[in-house]
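Protein modeling request. Please complete all fields; requests missing the sequence field cannot be processed.
Requester role: graduate student
Desired output: 3D structure, token encoding
Chains: 1
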Amino acid sequence: MAKKINFNKQSIISEYSKIILESGKRPSSIYLFCQHLKVEESQFYQFFTSLEQIEQSIFTTFFESTIKLLSDSEEYNIYDAKTKVLSFYFTYFEQLTANRSLIIYLLHEDKNQLKNLKKLSDLRSHFKHFIEELALEPIKIPQESIEKIQQKSISEMAWIQFLMTLKFWIDDTSPSFQKTDIFIEKSVHASFDLMDLTPLKNIIDFGKFLWNEKVKV
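Delivered output (217 residues):
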């Protein structure tokens, strides 16, 4: 006798993932998927309105799990921003690695790479919010509108860096994906070094000083 499925958002994601891994393809329709789940379509629509939404949720579920694991750690709460980002990367990609076959399928399912990337749209929003919450500080420019643009630019650049890391991980053939760990560490350190603009701040301050002195003269 088949075991009855506890019907909720997580069970839908789990069963959907199981079908992909065991059959090598996604369910061809919501109707057939609901037949597999032994539920009415109306019940399915309480959680999702399309199969694509399930696929997007797979990536955000890993994100939420990562944030919970990190937040439950007392040490994480006292980390500086760079260490928090490193911790996020290592934890998130550890979860991706544990589900690599599924992730590779989802990101290579369609020949149109834009459609595959669309599956990351919800993750993008979550990730950018995570970066913005860290309140990374670029050069201080005393105009609120410019500061907002800077913060958006930082989160957008961080997302591009994440996509580069994801691509590296997909192509990585090293044992235990050790090269991805190295890539993460070096790329995060490099990105924070680029934001450490103290020398440039000093030049700007010096320029302001010279300008003020010139005006006085």
